[in-house]
Design goal:
Blueprint: H1 12-18, H2 22-32, H3 56-62, E1 85-89, E2 99-103, E3 108-110, H4 120-123, E4 125-133, H5 165-178, E5 191-195, H6 204-215, E6 217-219, H7 262-266, E7 270-272, E8 279-282, H8 285-288, H9 300-305, E9 309-310, H10 316-328, H11 335-343, E10 349-350, H12 362-369, H13 386-391, E11 396-399, E12 404-408, H14 424-436, E13 441-445, H15 457-465, E14 470-475, E15 482-485, E16 490-493, E17 504-511, E18 516-524, H16 539-552, E19 569-574
Parallel strand pairs: 3-19, 4-5, 5-8, 12-13, 13-14, 14-16
Antiparallel strand pairs: 1-2, 4-17, 6-7, 9-10, 11-12, 15-16, 17-18, 18-19
Helix pairs in contact: 5-6, 5-16, 6-12
Length: 576
């Protein structure tokens, strides 16, 4: 496998394929049938079109290898997406509810930015096809810096399903590998982009699990004592769900089950096939900052992170004050937070120290991505290069196809805070990149949304509006599906994969050859079945349970899936 850090030029076969109108390509590929199943798209294009010599991640993605655009694989693929089915609760709306496979969500046409020509489906050609992951929050639930004791103040402090985040992530990888093409166009899935909060608490262990899940391998989602769980779910505190114990905790009073053997199953080895397509990475506040909000400016947080004390309960008044400080960003250097942890150290649980829990520097984060052990299907670094390390820069540009460029931004705050920011230096860099790529279509990726970036967010929107080649700004952070028009481009915000409904999004970009472009968005769930079996503690069974527990988590918001126009859509915009 090539390890070139610069995307190779898109081969002639790919350029030719992208110019075949979608309807024509469907007919040709359907006629090819199973006999084409090992030849890829190139053999249908005639002599000289072979992609066998293509090198680099873009070439591999564009030719559809290893997911080949042949036979029935080339038609629009609704199966495995929320167009055909979506997990939905069964039974009366009270107590703990089981999930089942419910009806799908229709595709909604949105024309706020351009009018629809009824003939566009016959003319369109595909410019890009990819999947967005966001807010996976692969989490070390035994980490000493986690503030589960703030559960009374915020639902995000602790969730009953968190122990299964690795299982859910691997199941989402399996879903993407099973997609046989774009749901709207049938085009091969070219790559996956993560838009931040890939991990939960800025530590090496979580980052290693995330990289392994994405690129393939075995991971064990637990730190500390490998033979014993040391988190809040066997603490004896009724604030938390105790799946293995008869304790009548707060969650069991709401109908949560007792599942003997759950914690042992949840912390045993998980096997990931890794994505079969290239993938790229964007940083989020939980990736860059301990707790998603603190700047690790000295060794105080690191000392506690790798140490032997884990606080699991806090008086209500102190918890309320701490959460207020987090929301208002009043303790970015964690001085008050560290003092509180030390003040209550005598009441904290004794746990096994683990050096892999130490906070990561920005250089650590980049070097982990650049480790050849995590290359998987490429590219090495997943967007980041040695230049990023040398320049201490977590933003970059990458080539998606002949006509499309991607730009990944860094909206995290080095000085601490969960809200986003984009400084003047990055905006200047972005403007130069947009001018350089004025003849391309541009997709911008970040973690934070326009509404969650109080520093520089308005300037960023204005800059993107001045460059009509920008098709979309794709992000996460809010844990909610929301699609917003911004005059010349669409902002596509996607729900998380830790809170229900646990969705990722397929995005397809087409040129309609009528003066418009279409941006198709289609939501997908993980590959795990909607129905659960409390006796099934296999890797797949736990991934199903991950979704059901997320739905039933006390205080879980029911609006995160968004309105129909925020889910499966066709978004029209003018072709610049």
């Amino acid at each position: 496998m090539a390890r070139s850090r610069q995307p190779a030029p898109v081969p002639a076969a790919t350029r030719a394929a992208s110019q075949i109108p979608v309807r024509t390509r469907r007919a040709v590929l359907a006629a090819a049938g199973a006999a084409a199943a090992t030849g890829g798209l190139a053999h249908l294009l005639g002599p000289g079109s072979s992609s066998a010599t293509a090198q680099g991640p873009v070439a591999r993605a564009a030719t559809g290898s290893p997911q080949r655009a042949t036979g029935p694989h080339a038609a629009p693929v609704a199966a495995g997406t929320t167009l055909t089915a979506a997990s939905t609760p069964a039974g009366a709306p009270a107590g703990y509810r089981r999930l089942t496979e419910g009806p799908g969500w229709p595709r909604v046409l949105r024309t706020e930015l351009a009018a629809a020509d009824s003939r566009r489906a016959d003319r369109r050609t595909v410019l890009a096809s990819f999947v967005q992951f966001t807010d996976l929050h692969v989490v070390d639930v035994q980490h000493p810096l986690r503030y589960e004791y703030l559960r009374a103040q915020t639902n995000s402090a602790w969730r009953p399903q968190e122990t299964l985040s690795a299982h859910g992530t691997v199941s989402l990888v399996e879903r993407v590998n099973a997609l046989r093409g774009g749901p709207a166009t049938g085009a091969p899935i070219g790559f996956v982009m993560t838009t931040g909060d890939n991990t939960d608490n800025n530590c090496l262990a979580e980052l290693d699990w995330f990289l392994t899940a994405m690129s393939g391998g075995r991971l064990t989602p637990g730190t500390g004592d490998p033979a014993r769980y040391e988190g809040v779910q066997d603490s004896g505190l009724p604030l938390y769900w105790h799946p293995d114990a008869p304790l009548r905790d707060a969650d069991k009073k709401l109908g949560f089950p007792q599942l003997d053997g759950f914690l042992a199953a949840a912390t045993r080895q998980v096997n990931s096939p890794g994505l079969h397509v290239p993938w790229y990475s964007t940083v989020g506040n939980h990736d860059a900052l301990p707790g998603g909000c603190y700047a690790a400016v000295d060794g105080r947080l690191a000392e506690i992170a790798v140490g032997d004390r884990k606080l699991m309960e806090l008086p209500q008044s102190e918890g309320a004050a701490l959460w207020k400080a987090v929301k208002e960003g009043r303790d970015p250097r964690a001085e008050a937070f560290t003092a509180m942890l030390r003040r209550h150290a005598a009441k904290a649980r004794t746990v096994t120290p683990d050096a892999s829990r130490a906070p990561l520097s920005r250089a650590d984060y980049l070097r982990a991505h650049l480790d050849p052990a995590h290359e998987g299907p490429g590219p090495l670094g997943h967007g980041y290069t040695q230049a990023n390390v040398a320049e201490d820069r977590l933003y970059y540009t990458f080539r998606i196809s002949d006509e499309v460029v991607g730009i990944s931004l860094d909206t995290t705050r080095r000085g601490g805070h969960y809200k986003g920011a984009i400084g003047a230096a990055q905006l200047r860099w972005l403007e130069k990149e947009l001018k350089k790529h004025r003849d391309d279509r541009v997709l911008v990726f970040s973690h934070h949304t326009s509404g969650s970036t109080p520093e520089g967010g308005e300037a960023l929107v204005a800059l993107l509006c001045r460059h009509p080649q920008v098709v979309a700004w794709i992000n996460g952070h809010s844990h909610r599906n929301r699609i917003t028009p911004h005059g010349t481009f669409w902002e596509v915000s996607t729900a998380s994969h830790i809170d229900f409904p646990q969705l990722a999004r397929v995005v397809e970009v087409t040129d309609n050859h009528d003066g418009t472009l279409s941006l198709f968005t289609t939501l997908v769930e993980s590959a795990a079945p909607a129905r659960t079996d409390f006796g099934d503690l296999s890797q797949t069974g736990l991934a199903s349970l991950y979704r059901e527990l997320a739905f039933n988590a006390p205080g879980a918001r029911t609006t995160l899936a968004g309105a129909p126009g925020d889910r499966n859509t066709e978004l029209l915009l003018p072709r610049p």
